[in-house]
Design a protein that fits this description.
This protein is α/β, with parallel strands linked by helices. The protein folds into two domains: 55-307, Metal-dependent hydrolases (TIM Barrel, Alpha-Beta Barrel), CATH 3.20.20; 310-407, Immunoglobulin-like (Sandwich). The protein has helices at residues 15-40, 73-82, 142-151, 172-175, 187-192, 196-206, 210-216, 222-232, 262-268, 289-297; strands at residues 55-62, 87-90, 92-93, 105-106, 109-112, 114-119, 122-127, 155-158, 181-186, 238-245, 249-252, 255-257, 270-274, 301-304, 315-320, 323-325, 330-332, 338-342, 351-356, 359-365, 368-372, 377-386, 396-402, 405-408. It has an 18-stranded mixed beta sheet that branches. A four-stranded antiparallel beta sheet has the order 16-15-18-21, with no helix packed on it. Strand 15 (315-320) and strand 16 (323-325) form a beta hairpin. The model has no long low-confidence stretch (mean pLDDT 90).
């Protein structure tokens, strides 16, 4: 018989216990570093900075107690005031603000009315509609509901195309074109795009620095931006950022927790609406619901993560031959045209990236970019800055995503009609 193989030596007594203690110590030290980092990072909270003339800063896609949010209109308005917002868009499920509230100022916060609409193909925001707008319209019928919202004068934005479990039907993009824009960023989708470790770190930071906790969860929405660039090759499509704020997170089985609070969400990502251009001398910029909704429909705005750095006052325009165009506007191509981007100072050393028809064509580090355009196309600007603090890892994070400027090819002159032969 062959000899039995020798047994491996037993671990010394207490080895497993020491290993467990070391692991626990490592976890405690890691948690301490995360908490200390959260305590020392200071963010620019609740300030509008220095907006450009006519620039209005607000938040879209907010749910109140009238839908499935937790707060009253007074709660939402109070949070908006603390976040230094000039408007807030209330879009509850199945119910729109009535005319006594929609379009009115509450303590210097303009209320934009509307509704989040569920269809067979996903959800869209019908902003600016009043109760009764969908009377007689077949429930869940995507085309009919979009058409009814248009007829009612609404601005129609496809909500959370990806990432929330209520994604827009991919097949619908090719068959339905009757909408004004899409959410290129959505607060509810953003946190879901993180892995469990990132979510755990964010939850730990929330206990000492709630605003930083939410900033940590923001990533570039790659899939949504790729979709947007594809749609922009076909036609004008506005991009907006939606807070999708409920002041609660659902845990399932009818349970939820009441965070993050409206104020925390409102401080992170904001919509900057540009109402101050193309005005006659001495004309005051408008500040009313119609002007803001028209600007959103036409892409006269940009998204910004003001929770990282104040983003008001962005300059983003194409200049040439006496003509100027900014986000959402069109300009005819001519030789020597230049794209000029100037961003607010105080944001460290940002990265400016310019995309033409979905492909990156220019980039620079700094607060300004001047580039000569290479030809007609859809040009849009992104500005990135680094996450602050140790646990941010100096990760590049999208700070500003602007609506595109449409540089169109000049129309060929028509040939003269030949004279008739006598």
């Amino acid at each position: 018989m062959s000899a039995k193989a020798p047994r491996p030596p037993k671990a010394p007594p207490g080895c497993l216990a020491r290993l467990v203690r070391y692991l626990l110590l490592a976890l405690v030290l890691t948690a301490a570093v995360i908490l200390l980092d959260g305590l020392q990072v200071q963010l620019p909270l609740g300030t509008a900075g220095t907006p450009a003339r006519g620039e209005q800063i607000g938040v879209l896609h907010v749910h109140s107690r009238a839908g499935n949010g937790t707060g009253s209109l007074d709660d939402v308005v109070a949070a908006a005031r603390w976040a230094d917002l000039s408007f807030v868009g209330i879009t509850d499920y199945h119910t729109a603000l009535d005319a006594s509230e929609a379009g009115h100022d509450r303590k210097n916060v303009l209320l934009l009315g509307g509704e989040e609409v569920e269809t067979n193909d996903g959800h869209f925001l019908a902003m600016g509609v009043l109760p009764g707008w969908r009377d007689g319209v077949k429930e869940m019928d995507t085309a009919a509901l979009l058409a009814a919202a248009r007829k009612a004068g609404g601005t129609r934005i496809i909500a959370h195309p990806f990432g929330t479990g209520q994604d827009w039907n991919e097949k619908a993009w090719s068959k339905i074109d009757d909408y004004d824009g899409i959410e290129i960023m959505n607060g509810d989708a953003e946190w879901r795009d993180n892995n469990p470790i990132e979510l755990l770190m964010s939850a730990l930071i929330y206990t000492v620095n709630p605003d930083l906790s939410l900033v940590r969860l923001v990533n570039r929405p790659e899939k949504t931006l790729a979709l947007w660039d594809t749609l922009l090759r076909r036609r004008h499509v506005a991009g907006t950022c939606g807070a999708d704020a409920h002041a609660r997170i659902y845990l399932g089985y009818g349970r939820s927790v009441g965070f993050p609070a409206y104020l925390r969400v409102f401080r992170v990502t904001k919509e900057h609406v540009l109402l101050g251009e193309n005005l006659k001398n001495g004309q005051e910029p408008p500040r009313d619901a119609k002007a803001i909704l028209d600007a959103l429909r036409n892409g006269r705005s940009y998204c910004a993560m003001d929770g990282l750095a104040v983003a008001s006052g962005l300059l983003d325009r194409v200049e040439g031959e006496g003509a100027v165009a900014g986000p959402g506007q069109s300009i005819t191509w001519s030789l020597g045209q230049a794209l000029r981007v100037a961003i607010p100072p105080g944001s460290g050393n940002p990265m400016i990236r310019i995309y033409k028809d979905g492909h990156e064509v220019f980039d620079t580090r700094g607060w300004r970019l001047d580039a000569t355009l290479t030809g007609p196309g859809v040009y849009r600007t992104e500005v990135w800055i680094r996450q602050p603090g140790i646990t941010g890892g100096q990760t590049w994070t999208p700070w500003i995503i602007a609506n595109p400027i449409y540089v169109v090819a000049p129309t060929a002159p028509s040939l003269p009609t030949p004279a008739a032969t006598p």
